[in-house]
DNA sequence: TTCTTCATGTAATTAGTTACATGATTGA
DNA sequence: TCAATCATGTAACTAATTACATGAAGAA
């Protein structure tokens, strides 16, 4: 009853963009485009696609390549209706899952090498996004992308992922520089550096005017450089 | 067959920082600090804590508040050993799960209002991080944070989350401006704007001289039937 | 006194992953 | 013809969520 089943709706959305998809094409699409903001194992796709058929939201068609079967899917009228309904529901919150950051959080329990390995992983995660972005972005610019007609929304997604990726890489770079600075520093110096990092970040938060309640003396003056 | 069980290790890490934790304190900690990079349902904590005891990595202690029981946990020597081992293993990739972005991806199938709702959610997600950051950050600056001695690593986490949050908010702002620009624009103008967004992002990628070349093959979604 | 929030869990269910198995196609 | 990779799934399992139930403490 309370089933949101986002993955199923994601597939439904793909089905709505083209008249027929083989399961393989669906998985390829998820690998290429959606994995960075809705990552799922490929076996899940097979499962969900079958589920859609079971609910009458898609229909399947069998064909053969040699003696090996293949299933293709197409959206039904009921499927389109369900998709519209879903798109009108409130979105779920964004979540980030960053195991390397957990390791940094617990970093004092481990080694310097472990800390650096965590940073390296985050940098690699960002690079992986950019690597795909370069290929896909150039396709759109060339006008040859598989869903060129969707470019107006895809550009927004592209912008998101690009910034996300660069955030990861830049953070890894900054943090590595901090680790480098630590060597030869006293505990006091390290602490001072850390507090400065926190202060720098806080200074850049725009205080939300909506929620400023009691007294403005609480706020730091001189933060008037908003864009 | 590798059992990493990151959530269990996360709890183990908390246990290593203090001599005893009640389950409630563990859940509170996860809500306050870790939920933005390792979000888990609270019921999971109870489960995992029991699991740690079962494996001898922690021991539990029962007490009472009135007639109601309470369980507290402490790490064992074996637990510390396991924790060290885990910290030395390679980190897992970062993943982002952004349902609003999926909605933007499929945005042409829905309404303008739905698109804006997705952006609003992302902005809210960023704000939620900053709201906690303000409180926690000031605690560290004041020297009164519960784990003040961990400030050197916590500052790095703080830096990450601050930038992540601002990335979300800035993207929502930019994208909303794009939606505003769309009204009164022709399809050609919208497309031009979108391509410009993609171009701007690509221009800012440093092309990694190391991994040039590779494959432009991956594209080509077959069946060139496009609307 | 009653309401709300803090605190402590259990039960039922589902979503998702890992591992495996195997046919078809390509190209060296 | 052999290996790699493309393509198509299934089985087994576990991690995780939702929903529920209820006691204690403090505020109104």
Q: Could you characterize the architecture of this molecule?
A:
Two copies of one chain form a homodimer. The first copy, chain A, is elongated, with a radius of gyration of 24 Å. With 227 residues, chain A is mainly alpha-helical. Chain A is built from eight helices and four strands, in the order αβααββαβαααα. The longest helix of chain A has 32 residues, at 151-182. Chain A has two domains: 6-87, Winged helix-like DNA-binding domain superfamily/Winged helix DNA-binding domain (Arc Repressor Mutant, subunit A, Orthogonal Bundle); 99-206. In chain A, strands 1-3-2 form a three-stranded antiparallel beta sheet. In chain A, a hairpin with a 2-residue loop joins β2 (58-65) and β3. At the A-B interface, α1, α2, α4, β4 and α5 of A face α1, α4, β4, α5 and α6 of B. The first copy, chain A, binds a DNA duplex (28 and 28 nucleotides) through α2, α3 and β3.
Shape type of chain A: elongated
Low-confidence stretches of chain A: 211-227
Largest protein interface?
A: A-B, 107 and 103 residues
Q: Tell me the span between the first and last alpha carbons of chain A.
A: 46 Å
Query: Strands of the biggest beta sheet of chain A: in what spatial order?
Result: 1-3-2
Query: Domains counted in the coordinates of chain A: how many?
Result: 2
Summarize the structure in short:
The structure is a homodimer of 227-residue chains. The first copy, chain A, is mainly alpha-helical and 227 residues long. Helix content of chain A is 60%, strand content 9%.
